[in-house]
Amino acid sequence: MVSWWRDPALAFPASSGLLLAAGYIAQWSGGDSLSTALFSLALAAGGWTFAPSAVRNLFSHRFLGVGLLMTIAATGAVILGHVGEAAALAFLFSIAEGLEDRAMDRAKHGLSALLSLMPQTARISTFDGDRTVVAADVNRLDILIVGGGERVATDGVVVSGRSNLDTSAITGESIPVEVGPGDGVLAGSVNSTGTLQIEASADGTDNSLTTIVRLVQEAHERKGERARLADRIAKPLVPIVLFAAALVALLGSVFGDSSTWIERALVVLVAASPCAMAIAVPVTVISAIGSASKFGIIIKSGEAFERFGTIRQIAMDKTGTLTRNTPQVVDAEAIESMSRGELLGIAASLERASTHPLAAAVVASASDVPESSDVEEIPGCGIRGTLAGAAIRVGSPRWVDPGPLTARSEEMASAGMSLVVVERDGAPIGVIGIRDELRPEAVEAIALMRDAGIEVVMLTGDNARTAHALAAEAGISTVHADQMPEDKARIVEELSRKAPTAMIGDGVNDAPALAGATIGIAMGVGGSAAAIESADIAFTGHDLRLIPAAIQHAHRGRRIMTSNILLALAIIVVLFPLALWGILGLAGVVLVHELAEVVVIGNGARASRVRGLGGLRAEPAPDPLLETVAGEGCADGCCAPTAPPVLIAKPLPGQRPLLAVTSRDDQRSDLPKG
Questions:
Q1: Measuring CA to CA, which residue among 440, 438, 441 is closest to residue 458?
Q2: Which of 66, 5, 14 is nearest to 45 (CA)?
Q3: What pLDDT, in 10s, does the model give residues 494-535?
Q4: What is the pLDDT of residues 442-493, one digit of tens each?
């Protein structure tokens, strides 16, 4: 962002101020003609920033803004011979407008910085060799060649090579992320050393970085609920002020000296103008959203930010939000004649031919995997085959009876595990417990929310035993399990009617609930498109401790908005009678009113300070194209509850997180319903 002395938005106000000062010096020196000329130039320089647009709005029948009041007041002051006061009014109002524009441009500066992260060109591997293309022309599934010091053109997955990526400009993580085959990478990341081959998972014009840019742009195009409240106050106040000023001039002229009361009417016009009201909220909202984006918080609208500051309840999806979304084998029980390793090897010999998420967990846990044959997967139930001449079945307890291991199976299920039973020649030989473990920071995050007076509720489509086990471990007392997408939406709407409620989720099945909540929060910009579009806020990180920190940020911004509105109203209430009874003249009212406006802008700019985000760690958002999607429960009732695994680029110890925010344009009824 340019320095303030080079900012074009401040050029005319600064010129007006210099000319005004020179005019006062000339006036004090006795040069009346010179001072009048300097005052006129100061008036022209300052008035150029608001008078033309005010006149255009008047003739186009748009909102009668405070700029019109200032234009009328300055014109009247000139007619009455108070050119110096008119110049002072124009200067102070223009400098206040310029400071507001600068505050908003400062918030928007991060957007252009994001755009600069996109490389102009990219190298892709083809059958005819490597060739260089425009970055925007990169297509999904292209193989990118990224050398040392080069930026990644779009989101993708490393297919060969190992290196460290600098993602600080995108995620705020100061320590480079080590990546290798299978790890997801974000557009705009800088490769440090070595060469990576990356399979593009998004087009060059539609990736996580361009999504963030688009969402931030939309954030600046919308006003919040309180901004609309300020407009509702200011909009009728402008004609009321015009009417009051005209009434003062008319009645005063009838019962007193007309020139005195016309001048006093102009003073009333300036004193009661809601210019501070007009800028009280927008500058606060833009400052808060802009500062949040510097930490990876993407908030799509001012309305969303303001509603975020009212949150008193949070409904959280389990899979992918509270949990890692990577199922792992956490327990295994084999018959007495068999070791745990042998059991896992037998199960993995069949499961490695399956694409089921639980199968991947079993294969990952086995160290020795024998060869099997005649493997056949039974959709929704399990898999069967032959190993060393024996018939093997691996699947859900609803398909394979655990027999004598039933009691142990019940214990595992009570601990929130999904069960896989292994059978050989019709006899059960073991049961394997798999669970999508809680995120390491989940317990601390829930405690922070509880300490802040925010009630946390878990919503999940998983079975009740799994849900309650994980909820107890996380410290959540209220659980709604076995919920379909429409059930989640209904519960969230009920919660929202009782108290402002945020819904946090990352999947397609969360979309209806995200749309129906007071605030919908999508975990990860790379998450489900339906979740992103249905939400108000998105976090590119997955560290749940960022959520209470973000709510604190919104609460503080809301308090600043409230104080700004009260201050703007107080200015009008105090100055109006002082102007009406002639206690303050035009110069005094202009000075007090416009200096107070600058105070309002300064107070709003305080919202740019972000607290409580340091020292956290977050996993980069998973790319949805890396997911193996599986529903929570199957129609035929055979399979065990599952959670879709994802490939995640793991952060190094000591990394800082990125908190990001996105969301929907509005709570539209035509959004995809998961």
A1: 438
A2: 14
A3: 998 899 999 988 765 677 788 788 888 877 644 555 556 567
A4: 899 899 999 888 999 998 877 788 788 889 989 999 999 878 777 888 899 8
Q: Return d(Cα 625, Cα 623) in angstroms, integer.
A: 5
Question: 288-306 pLDDT, tens per residue?
Answer: 876 776 555 677 777 788 8
What distance in Å separates the CA atoms of residue 351 and residue 349, rounded to the nearest whole number? 6
What pLDDT is recorded for position 664? 31
Tokens of 471: 């909820």
Exposure pattern of 167-202 as b/e (b: 16+ CB <10 Å)?
Answer: bbbbbbbebbbebeeebbbbbbbbbeeeebbbbbbb
CA gap 147, 177 in Å, rounded: 16
Q: Which amino acid is at 147?
A: G
- Note the pTM of the prediction, 2 decimals: 0.58
Tokens of 96: 């206040």
Q: Please tell me the predicted confidence (pLDDT) of residue 638.
A: 42
pLDDT in tens, 65-82: 667 777 877 787 787 677
Name the helix (H) or strand (E) containing 587: helix 586-605
Question: Does the CA dihedral 86-87-92-97 come out positive or negative?
Answer: positive
The two tokens of residue 369 are 């995997």
In 524-656, the DSSP E strands lie at 537-539
Q: Does the domain spanning 121-152+156-200 belong to CATH 2.70.150.10? A: yes
Strand order in the sheet with 478-480: 297-299, 537-539, 519-523, 501-505, 313-317, 455-459, 478-480
Query: Do residues 316 and 477 lie in contact, with contact meaning Cβ atoms separated by under 8 Å?
Result: no
* C-alpha to C-alpha distances, 670 to 16, 215, 489, nearest whole angstrom: 51, 19, 15
Catalytic residue among 317, 436, 462, 623: 317
Lowest mean pLDDT among 136-150, 318-332, 393-407: 318-332
- The continuous run of DSSP H or E covering 429 comes out as strand 427-435
Q: What angle (nearest 5°) sits at the alpha carbon of residue 498, between those of residues 494 and 502? A: 70
Distances (CA, A) of 451 to 309, 422, 455, 557, 559: 16, 45, 9, 20, 20
Q: Which residue has the higher pLDDT, 667 or 147?
A: 147
Q: Out of 3.40.50.150, 3.40.50.1000, 3.40.50.2000, 3.40.50.1010, select the CATH number for domain 290-324+439-553+613-626.
A: 3.40.50.1000
| 317 flagged as catalytic | yes
For residue 247, what are its two tokens? 């009434």
What kind of architecture, by CATH, is found in domain 328-435? 3-Layer(aba) Sandwich (3.40)
Rg (CA), the chain: 32
- At residue 295, the pLDDT reads 58
Closest CA to 464 of 446, 477, 483: 483
